Amino acid sequence: MQAWPLPLEQTLITYFAFTAIIIGRYFLIVWPIHWALWKRPSDRVKARRLSRRNPTQETIHHEIKLSVISAFIYALPAALVVEVWKAGGTALYSGAVTTPSGLLYLAFSGFLFLFIQDTYFYWTHRVMHHKKLFALTHSGHHKSVQPTPWASFSFDPIEAVISAWLLPVMAIFIPLHVGMALALLMLMTVNAVFNHAGWEVYPDRWVKGWFGKIMITASHHNLHHTKFTGNYGLYFRFWDQVMGTDKGQV
User: Fold this and answer.
1) Are 59 and 144 in contact (CB under 8 A)?
2) CB-count exposure of residue 126 (10 Å: 0-12, 13-18, 19+)
């Protein structure tokens, strides 16, 4: 089936639906995590505190404002790809996966998407920290020197434009099961919230063990917000370690 041109009315409906879904998902995931970490007595929180001070309402309002703006930006490429998929123009597929090769590829494709996104994020993130680009592309996110869970999606508009297109475009060319796509979106959201939580939610034995040596957690990313340099990765410490920008963890 011909994927282009896309029907304008249906594409707009999909776009606004995705915008609402992204904003709704943001609040439904962030609010309970923020409440569990910051609205209860500290002695009841089963996590290690990283932030030196409690978040202010001004900080939270700023993070929410940027996050809502980002939702409108992220929804556009997602809506376009969904409409192209409906017209048969993407590599997305659905249905039961039961064969060993199908299951193996399912796992491989999930890791591949994460690694490509992590690679793209590392390099664009590092470039955005250049002194000539930082104010325009990334300074809004770093107003959260001590981030809260609400900062997980608080991108400057230009940063959102730079990052929003990657996964939808990948889905046009790299076969990906619809179920895996949904799982990746949920994983990305929860990972971002945890890494900006201001608390280390993973057990110290994980953070100090093999898991923390490979994966980025709040202990690693919080240093990026307080030091403004190094620790540029998204999921994995691989590129930071290879490029000598890994500043360790708190």
Assistant:
1) yes
2) middle
